[in-house]
Structure formats: structure tokens, C-alpha cells
Sequence to fold (229 residues):
Amino acid sequence: MTKTVVLTGAGVSAESGVPTFRDARGLWEGYQVDEVATPRAFRARPDIVHAFYDARRASLETVEPNPAHVALARLEAGLGDELLLVTQNVDDLHERAGSTGVLHMHGQLRSALCVGCDVRSPWTGPLGDGPDCPACGAPELRPDVVWFGELPYEMDRIFAALDEAELFVSIGTSGAVYPAAGFVQYAAARGARTLELNIEPSEGTHWFHEARHGPASVLVPEWIDRLLG
Ligand SMILES: [Zn+2]
Fold:
């Protein structure tokens, strides 16, 4: 039975040096969103899309989990299956900090999805050179990330957990991207307490019962120390 649902977003990984998706000009590391993050872009220019994600996958080698990731792994150790940790992040910093049950609602860089057979395979190298799918042998692997126009993964499981939750905590998210931005209202309507931990008030900050603002690497360990006593 899930009692606590935690949602993490780009703000948690930003402190590890993972670039947040959009810069001030609305670009992702120099690319327009619709050049690299839509199914249409992948059909039109798979070389550009693969180059973008291959570079981001490779850059994971240069970043490390920060105290927020480490504290959330401690929370999982303390709460067991009463915790569901949902992340919008496609990096693997939660896993590298020790979390094991992370639900990646937007997919993962270190995973490849086969367009031919729908099987996903762990993947650390590039995809741009057209490697074969380990499951079916077809050279039809794509990044296992959710693009604009695609449904996030495991929404049924997330909403079922929010139905049961007594506490919903949003960490490092802008509150601008749906459906995740709607989790707070959904959880609160079903009786959960809601808490925001973010560098600044998010777009949805007024929906939370309580909001604390500052770096995740400070706020998250503080909150978890108090919770676990
Ligand atoms: Zn396949």
C-alpha cells in the first residue's frame, strides 16, 4: 500500500550538473524542441534525434548523484513499498544513489526501445549507428524517452498510488508540464497532504498545503531526516 508518493523533476538533477531541458531561449542545448523531441522529428531526421540523445546519454558519465538523490534512496530504505518515487528525469541518478523502485514516467536515456518488437533493453552506448535490437535483431531501436505527443509511462500505476497516498511531495519541478503538474490537485482531492520542495515557487505552488523553497540538495535531506526521525 502506497502511503507516500514523491515526484522529482529537473531541479533535482540540475544540482548534479545535468542541464535542464530548456534554456532561456526555449532551446535544448541549441536544438528546437520539435527538431529532437517529437515522433515526427524522429521519422524525418533520425540522425539528428539520435545525435542529440546519444550526446545526453554519454554526458551521464560526467555527473554524480547529489545529496537529494542520496536522501531519497534513504527514504526508500526506510519506507519500503509504502513509497512510490516517480521521476520526470531521464537520467539514472536516482538508481546510482541506491533507489531501486523508481518509476520513470518520461523514460530513460540508458534504455533503448525497439520500434519493431516493443521490447526495451538497457543501453549505455550510442544508437545513431543503427545497432540491432537484442530481442528481435531488427535495427530499429529508438531512445526510450517519451516525446511530445506521446503518453507518459505507467500513468495508471501513478494515479492508483495517488489514490491511496497520505502524502504527496513534489521536488524540483516547475509545475508547468502536464500531466505531472496535475498530480498535486489529484492527490489533495483524495485526502493527501501535499508538500512542494523547489528552488522557487512553482507555477502550481498555491495548490500545495505547504511549500519550502531552496536548493533540493539542502531541503530534501532536511525533510527526510525529520520524516524518518
Ligand atoms: Zn526488437
In short: The pocket of zinc ion is lined by residues 114, 116-117, 119, 133, 135-136, 138 (CB under 6 Å). The chain is about 35% helix and 20% strand. The mean pLDDT is 94.
